[in-house]
Design brief:
Layout: H1 2-18, H2 22-34, H3 38-84, E1 95-104, E2 111-114, E3 127-129, E4 134-141, E5 146-150, E6 158-162, E7 168-173, E8 179-184, E9 195-198, E10 210-218, E11 226-232, E12 241-245, H4 252-258
Length: about 260
Amino acid sequence: MKREFHFLIYLILAILLFIGNNENRLLKAQFLSETIYFPLINSIQKFNSLFDLKEKNQQLSEKLSEYTIRITELENKLSKIENYRIDYNTGSYSHLLADIVGFKGEFQERCLIINKGKKDKIKLDYPVISNDGIVGKIISVSHNYSIVLPLDNSRFELGIMSKRKHLQGIMKSDVFGNSYMTLIKPGSDIKVGDVIITSQISSVFPKGFPVGQITKLIGSKTDIFMSAKIQTFINPSELDQTVILLYEKDESYEEELKDN
């Protein structure tokens, strides 16, 4: 009964709309749209607006995603530029930027895996640096990747000296990643705050590359030599990129010494 009543109302309205000329029909249609049909028309308009809003939100979300990706790409490029900028003199040696893509080993004994290898002309014992100081040396090379022994590894040793007085020593690290300058004669002119750099006796690095700074002098009455704790300028675990120095030290003098 209710459906028939609705149908009857719609039929009467339809007949009323068709009675008269075009102008009268338009006026009646306008009147109905502003009165009886207004809630329905308003709901339809709101519904369409919601669809439009959803579509615009989708478009904005897509644009935001594109901008986010672009910003990330630009930030990565900026990071590479900053990491490739060395703040100290590297001489005329060529260098190559590499990403750290993994680690090998546990705790402070772990080595760094970088995404450069034989295809990039990388060789064993190439020095590895960052824009703040030395990082380590290449100890293994495959076609696409290489392994870097970092300076805070207990297997890493390096000829170093104080920048102020050129006092020579050997850099060593313990299993906890603490680095020291060893083989210092008691009474030598060395003090807290002295900057430590690579020395000429280094078998890997050229002379003068920054290593760290003395934070503590350690001596003992029973030891022939004293040592000094070094705060290195870089922490290998905080790096995501390194710079490989394409440098091989000339050690031809060693062959000459064998003949004497």
